[in-house]
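>> received
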Amino acid sequence: MKQRLLRALYKTLLSVCFLTLGATYLRAQSASPAMLSAATWEIIKTPSADRSQKLSSLAKAEGGTVSLYTSIAEKDLKVIFDPFEKKYGIKVLAWRASGDSVMTRTITEARAKRYNVDAFHAGAVELEALSREHLIQRVASPHFVDLMEGSLPPHKEWAATLFSLWVQAYNTQAFKESELPKSYADLLDPRFKGKLGYEVENVDWFVTVIKSMGEAKGIQFFRDLSKTNGISVRKGHTNLTSMVASGEVPMALTVYNYMPEAFKKKGAPIDYVVIQPAVARANGVAVLKNAPHPASAALLMDYLLSEGQIASSSLDYFPSNLKVSTPLRHFKMMVVDPAESLDQRDRWKKLYEEIILKGSRP
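>> returned
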């Protein structure tokens, strides 16, 4: 009798165990993936004190990788992302191309409902285009408060990690320091005739300089510059910088600040000046709405806006985070408005082609 009671009790306990395990499994199944995804996005949208810890745990559960489409130079990827990978154990799978190419690929894949990418890093114009396609998820990074003016668009769907500052590079054997321009008007001086180079795609610099002068005056300035001194249009910022270093182009109006620095460190006879107000273009990061690994993407975004700024600064980039020092920050500057670049593109491109391209010389 006692043995029969024990066997019955054992079967009852066993049934309860199976029922409990089954209920736990069903709860887990019902929470995946929609409920778990919703919980992840809630953490991403909340700048809590333990945000980094929560995102790190979720990122590891997502599989330990994050997919990034970026226009960052290939040679700089390792320097920027190695610290992130070592700290969090999350591998950055980067696909690198020009800003226009990564934007086009992202939009094309989204329209085909192929959601392969988690995060996007490129120029402000490309990011603004993705925003208008409703492809970016607004997040609430705690590092937004540390960013310099012009780093966040009004909708705050992306944030600038660095600025590309256009500078005027010159060959030190072609110009004495006393001959360098101190203002845009100085470029009209005859001493610059036949000596000025320009990168072919820099429409935004052209537009922003015009706006800094006032539209009518600015347009007339470029007409006069093109007519009197001429502008040699070249393709590729690195190529143009190399031509300055060799002396083929004595002065380049539109190269990025870190490029002449790199040639200078190798002993080339090159340096640069910054005519003010200088023109800067934001390069930023965003999390995609349909990211397969949203926590990993948000963690990467937070890193690029904080610790990653130190790595970027070591490459002579202009960091957006005010906590990271740079000698470039004291220049008076204007930041390219990406919304205007998109909205007025046809008008400005027509003027640019008429004044700069058609008025250029080989």
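>> Residues 173 and 278 are 24 Å apart (CA to CA).
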